[in-house]
Amino acid sequence: MAKIKVLLADDQELILESLHIVLSMEEDLEIVGLAKNGEEALKGCEQFKPDMVLMDVNMPVMDGVAATALIKERMPATKIIMLTSYKEVEYVLAALSHGAEGYLLKAIHPRDLAAGIRVVQAGGTLITQEMASKMIKNINNTTPPKNNEFGLSGREIEVLHKLAAGLR
C-alpha cells in the first residue's frame, strides 16, 4: 500500500514538530515537508508533490487560506485540511470555498487526525459536527437557504444540516 505523502504547514514550531513526530508513527503516512508559512507551503507542494497538506489558517507572509487557493489552482489533486485553533465560521467558509477538503481544530486527538487524513485521501470531506452546526446557524440567520451568501446549493445545505445533527 502506498503511503500518503503529507506536508505540514504551521508557524508555531512546537505544533509543527509535534505533528511531525505524531504523524510519523503512522505506518501509512509519510511526512515529506515542513513549512512555517503559506509561501513555504506553496513551494513545498511544488517541490515534494504531497497528497495532503495540513495547513494552519493564521501564518505570516501568506496565510493558510491564500496558500490553499494558490495550491488548489496550481495542483488541484493535492488535498488540504485546515488544522487550526480558529472556531469562527468565516474561516471555515473561506477555507472550504477556496478548495480545502477539511477543517479541523488543533484540539483533535492524534488518532482522529490520522483517521481524518485517511478519510480525505479517500475522497471524503471533513468538518466537525460543531463547525457544521455553526455554519447552519450562520446560514439560517443571514439569508434564506435557497439564496445564501456562501453560494451553497440546496443539497450542500441539506448535507450541512445532517452533519450538524450528528449524522455522517
Automatic annotation (TrEMBL):
Listed InterPro entries: CheY-like_superfamily, NreC/VraR/RcsB-like_REC, Sig_transdc_resp-reg_receiver, WalR-like
Response regulatory domain ranges (all copies): 5-121
SUPFAM superfamilies: CheY-like (SSF52172)
Pfam families for the chain: Response_reg (PF00072)
SMART domains: REC
Keyword DNA-binding: yes
Gene3D superfamilies: 3.40.50.2300
Post-translational modification 4-aspartylphosphate, affected residues: D56
PROSITE patterns, per the entry: RESPONSE_REGULATORY (PS50110)
Protein name in UniProt: Response regulator transcription factor
UniProt KW keywords: DNA-binding, Phosphoprotein, Transcription, Transcription regulation
Keyword field contains DNA-binding: yes
Highest taxon, organism lineage: Bacteria
